[in-house]
Structures are given as structure tokens and as C-alpha cells.
Backbone:
């Protein structure tokens, strides 16, 4: 007997749905860009935290995946993903305990990152204890001013120290584009600056006799610009790119020019709970699922504010609706013009693309993959909250 499939209309709200057609197109586009640029693609999985989606990306051509915090690597490794780069430097006994646990998984390649000798010394001790050489990259600060050692002399000095540590196999450099304005010209300039700085440091290390086999750059807003640069052949030192958010997309990355609105795969499915006020309706989803990211950094863009308030998402198919106030478990959706808008009724359902899909997905244990109005598969958000030592 054929198993009955669940219609999207039958899902309990609020929940997160992801359009499988859009997701698959995004994965294919990212893979194609990396292939045409002649570099390996290693997508960052912080946007979805789902091993099933990560496996889709690898099946499409990714060389492996990237996670942020070291704890996020556990669920991916336990799901059988065997090549993981941990993009955030880490420090402390509890983090090193997670590293030991990861290194005990047969067949798993783990690459770590450092921007201080103190981080690397802890990793070195673990490598010595386990009689391993742990692959390590030096994190560069190419303008993001978060993690990373400055280019030039500081990078060279730290690389020399890293090469002398036992239990570590120094492999190269990791950079992440950041900054710039949401214009094509600005994104192209940021991509060029990052590629130029990173390639120059790779050449500097090579001249000093330091082997550099791995050099990676990348971010979702600059993905296309970076790949166009790499296609030119002017940066042969760069071997890998690591975009993430444009796999799923959200309003943040629409504003950042990382993806167009039609490439936003995820949405919060919610229901109208009250329509008593003719100016607005109340839906059953608030900041506990949307998060509370107003994207205030884009406040100078036209249309950012409406009646002095920012929006927290975009209602699919209804440009005349505005998600403009949230509490913990409800939100206000206003009509742009109550006199001309098609009125919503109690029980009506809305699909709202969140400002920040990473925040929204991280609130859920599972998200629903849909196609043509039917739930085709259910994804487990296995990385939600991290998995440290002692986790099941």
C-alpha cells in the first residue's frame, strides 16, 4: 500500500518549511560556480545544521563541509560525513575533549583553525597524546575584524611557530570576506582584496619554505564575485571556497545581494489567530521561531522602515503585508493599505521568509522539505545547540 504523504496544509503551525526545488537549485548553482572557478567547494553548514542537507551538498560535488563551533562537527561526523573543517578557533579543556572524541571516529578527516599560539598548543598536546598530526590552518584577518591574525609579518611569525609544534600538520591559510556595502562594485572589491591579501601571504610563506597546500576564501555575498576572479586564473594559490548562507537564503542575504528573493528556500509557516482589527492580523509565530534580527545594519536602504518600524520577514506572495511587531509567540502582520488589500481570515496560513534563517532554523528540532504542496522529507536539525562531551 502506498504511504500517504502529508500535505503542507496539514502541518501544525508554527513550523519551518523548506522548498526542495529551490534548495536543490541553490546547491547546484553553488557547486557549478566552484567547479567553473577551478577550486574545491566546502560549504559552511551553519545555516541549516542538517546532516541530510550536508549530504545533498556533498553528493552534488562538495569536497566536504565546514562547521563553526567544534561541537557542531559531532552530529555531522556521526552521520557519516568524513571531511569536516572547523572554522572557528577554539580553546579550553572542554573543547579539546570534543576534539579527542572527533579524532576517535574512524575514517574522519578533521581540519582545525588557529589565530593564536595558545589555541594551537592545546591542539598540539592532543595530537601528541594520540600520536597524530592534526591538520591546521592559520586564520587571517582580511577585514572582518573578528577572528584572524593580521596579514604580513604577524601571519608569517605565527606560521613559523605553528610549524614547530609537534602533533600538528600545518597546511595553509583560511580567510573569510567581510565588510563592504551591498552593491556589486563593493562586493567585487571586497572579494578582490581578500583574494589578493590571502594569495600574497601564501606566496610569502612559500618563499620562507613553509608548505601551503590549502588556501581558502569565501562568503555568500561575495561568492559570485570571488568565483569570477578565480576563473581568471590570477590567484592559483587559492584552492577552496566556503560559502554557506546562500544554500538556503533569507532576507538578510537578499539585502546583502547574496541571493535574490526567489532563492530563499526556507519560510516560517504560521496561521492567523486573530483578525479582529481591520488594519492587521495576529499570527502564531513570534521571536521564539523568527529570532529578533531586525537587520538594523541596513537601515539606510530605501523602504527599511515603515511607520518608524523595521520588518522581521517577508510574506510570500503578499507584498501588501508587513511583519512589523513581534512578541515571544505571536507577531503582528499589517496591511500596507487596509482599504484595498485582500483581507486575511482567521485560520489562513502564511509563509514568511525570515530575516535570519540561521536563527529561525536553530529554534527547531526538524524542518519540513516540501515539493508541490506536499511534505517529501523531514530534516533533523541535528546541530541545534551544539553537542559537547556527554551528549547522546
Residues:
Amino acid at each position: 500500500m502506498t504511504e500517504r504523504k502529508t500535505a503542507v496544509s496539514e502541518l501544525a503551525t508554527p513550523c519551518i518549511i523548506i522548498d526542495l526545488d529551490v534548495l536543490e537549485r541553490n546547491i547546484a548553482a553553488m557547486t557549478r560556480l566552484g567547479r567553473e572557478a577551478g577550486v574545491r567547494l566546502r560549504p559552511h553548514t551553519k545555516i541549516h545544521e542538517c546532516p541530510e542537507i550536508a549530504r545533498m551538498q556533498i553528493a552534488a560535488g562538495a569536497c566536504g563541509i565546514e562547521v563553526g563551533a567544534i561541537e557542531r562537527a559531532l552530529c555531522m561526523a556521526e552521520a557519516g560525513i568524513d571531511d569536516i573543517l572547523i572554522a572557528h578557533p577554539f580553546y579550553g579543556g572542554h573543547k579539546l575533549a570534543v576534539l579527542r572524541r572527533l579524532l576517535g571516529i574512524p575514517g574522519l578527516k578533521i581540519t582545525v583553525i588557529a589565530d593564536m599560539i595558545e589555541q594551537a598548543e592545546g591542539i598540539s598536546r592532543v595530537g601528541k597524546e594520540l600520536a597524530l598530526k592534526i591538520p591546521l590552518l592559520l586564520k587571517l584577518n582580511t577585514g572582518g575584524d573578528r577572528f584572524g591574525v593580521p596579514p604580513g609579518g604577524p601571519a608569517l611569525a605565527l606560521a613559523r611557530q605553528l610549524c614547530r609544534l609537534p602533533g600538528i600538520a600545518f597546511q595553509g591559510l583560511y580567510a573569510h570576506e567581510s565588510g563592504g556595502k551591498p552593491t556589486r562594485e563593493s562586493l567585487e572589491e571586497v572579494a578582490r582584496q581578500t583574494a589578493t591579501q590571502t594569495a600574497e601571504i601564501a606566496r610569502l610563506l612559500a618563499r620562507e619554505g613553509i608548505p601551503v597546500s590549502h588556501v581558502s576564501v569565501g562568503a555568500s555575498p561575495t561568492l559570485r564575485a570571488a568565483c569570477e576572479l578565480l576563473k581568471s586564473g590570477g590567484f592559483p594559490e587559492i584552492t577552496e571556497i566556503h560559502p554557506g548562507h546562500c544554500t538556503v537564503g533569507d532576507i538578510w542575504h537578499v539585502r546583502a545581494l547574496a541571493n535574490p528573493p526567489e532563492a530563499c528556500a526556507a519560510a516560517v509557516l504560521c496561521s492567523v489567530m486573530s483578525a479582529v482589527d481591520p488594519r492587521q492580523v495576529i499570527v502564531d509565530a513570534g521571536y521564539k521561531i523568527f529570532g529578533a534580527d531586525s537587520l538594523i545594519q541596513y537601515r539606510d536602504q530605501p523602504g527599511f522602515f515603515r511607520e518608524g518600524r523595521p520588518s522581521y520577514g517577508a510574506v510570500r506572495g503578499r507584498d501588501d503585508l508587513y511583519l512589523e511587531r513581534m512578541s515571544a509567540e505571536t507577531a503582528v502582520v499589517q496591511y500596507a493599505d487596509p482599504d484595498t488589500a485582500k483581507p486575511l481570515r482567521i485560520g489562513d496560513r502564511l509563509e514568511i521568509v525570515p530575516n535570519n534563517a540561521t536563527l529561525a532554523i536553530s529554534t527547531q528540532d526538524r524542518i519540513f522539505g516540501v515539493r508541490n504542496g506536499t511534505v517529501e522529507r523531514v530534516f533533523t536539525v541535528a546541530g541545534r545547540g551544539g553537542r559537547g562531551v556527554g551528549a547522546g
Notes: The first strand starts at residue 15 and ends at 19.
